[in-house]
Amino acid sequence: MKRVLLTLVGALVLVGAGAYGALALTARPVPYFRFFDALPQDRAVVIAHRGGADLWPENTLEAFTGAMALGADVLEMDVFFSADGIPVVIHDETIDRTTSGSGAVGSYTVEQLQAFDAAVEHPDLRGSGIYIPTLEEVFAAFPGVPMIVDAKEPDPALAQAMIDLVVQYERVDLTILASFHHDILVYIRQTDPRIATHLSEREIVPLLIGSWLFSGHLFSPPAPALLVPPRSGILPVTTRRFITAARGRGLFIGAWTINEPEQMAALLDRGVHGLVTDRPDLAVSQVQDRR
What we know:
CATH class: Alpha Beta
CATH architecture: Alpha-Beta Barrel
Number of helices: 10
Radius of gyration: 20 Å
Distance between the termini: 47 Å
């Protein structure tokens, strides 16, 4: 009786999840993108979150340079629009926390933004000329380096500007365009299907439910990657069962933001493909220890 009830509940949940358009009787294959061919195939990868926010002024050229020197495989960064419509690399909606200025990012031109000191959280580097870079500057400075670029605003114009730069700098096979905004991910996929994205939160739900019910094989991924936290509120996400389900569907799974060696080790043991971390030094060490 218990098994019958579980099967019935499972069927109802899967039917409900089908409203997301992600489950089917015959699961579609995961979309293929050459981005993943650029990554090491024999080990997990280290994704430097904001370039390694605990080590250097985050989202700066100095941070990205330092992360690459440590052996990071992928650079992760965030993007807002400046007042003059240029994608600039910064995490917060305002410049208050990370620079010597204050106010909304979008209230300043690039020239004005770059006049502020972007090293205020690192006293030893203040006054050394570290500034907010444009996305174009980052692309120009690190050709050939895989990147994850997160659109922080739900603005299709920002997404389009990012797409245009990816194409201009011949980074279609080297870039995942990311966002917490579902509609922006859909816009990117529809505008240039060659560019990889990750699954939005609403797109992850059917796989998560399917993993609970041993039905992850029915999941049809609309994108090739999962970028997920260990927990969502009280709900554990990066469980062994979920990771196994994701891997079974051919998805790349990166866990964020993982800064403690013990948690890094546990997630690597469960089979994540990537660690998104503010401490790329520690992550590189953990990954190398498993080779």
